[in-house]
Each structure stands twice: as C-alpha cells, then as structure tokens.
Design goal:
The chain is built from 2 helices and 7 strands. With 118 residues, the chain is an alpha+beta fold.
Length: 118
C-alpha cells in the first residue's frame, strides 16, 4: 500500500505554497518517518513473512481448530481449513501485539528502541 506525502512548493509569484501529492512506497514512508523521530529509534523494514508452525485439528463438531504451539493460548477455529488459517494469522498478530504492549507498560523506554516489522 502506498502512502501520500505532501511536499511544499512556493509559486513564482509568491502566492501561498502549493502542496502537490506524490505517492511513496511503504519502505520510503518508514524511512522518512524514522528520520522525523528520535535519532536513536531505528525501523527495520522487510518484505518477507515470519514463518510459524501451526497445528490444525478437526473437532467433534466439524470445526477446524488452529493453534500456534510456541505462543501459549494462541488458539482459534474456522468452519474449514482456509478460514482457520486466516483466523490463526490474525490471532498470532493480536497475540504478539498484546505481549508487546504488556512489555512496554512494564518497562521504561530504553535509550535505543527498535521497531521491527515481521
């Protein structure tokens, strides 16, 4: 998904600055955002996905239960395997975000904070 970045440009007659819209990639957006934030904050952008093992089992009601065994309590279900896999991806993201938020609430902001895209 591309983002829009506004750049300021004054006209030759001295009128108010115009803000033409230009499309920038997510990678460029993150790099620009990092430059605007504290110098010790670093963003890593990678286009690869993290791979995790997931267990799939059919329960007695016919639903497919999906569990990510390395994330305690990260379990969901779906009417079929495809829906269960979509749901477990969302559950994994929510689990990781929740754990990150718990960590941030318990600690002081370190002098060098790193944000990593996985």
């Amino acid at each position: 998904m591309a983002r829009t970045d506004a750049s300021h440009k004054a006209t030759a007659k001295g009128n108010a600055p115009q803000r033409p819209q230009r499309r920038v990639s997510d990678k460029d957006f993150l790099r620009d955002l990092c430059a605007r934030l504290r110098q010790d904050t670093v963003f890593y952008y990678k286009e690869e996905a993290m791979l995790l093992h997931v267990n799939l089992e059919k329960d007695e009601d016919g639903w497919v239960v999906a569990e990510c065994p390395i994330l305690p309590g990260c379990v969901t279900q779906g009417k079929d395997e495809q829906e269960a896999l979509e749901n477990i991806k969302e559950a994994i993201q929510a689990w990781l975000w929740t754990e990150d938020q718990k960590f941030l609430a318990q600690t002081q902001t370190p002098s060098s904070q790193v944000l990593v895209s996985v």
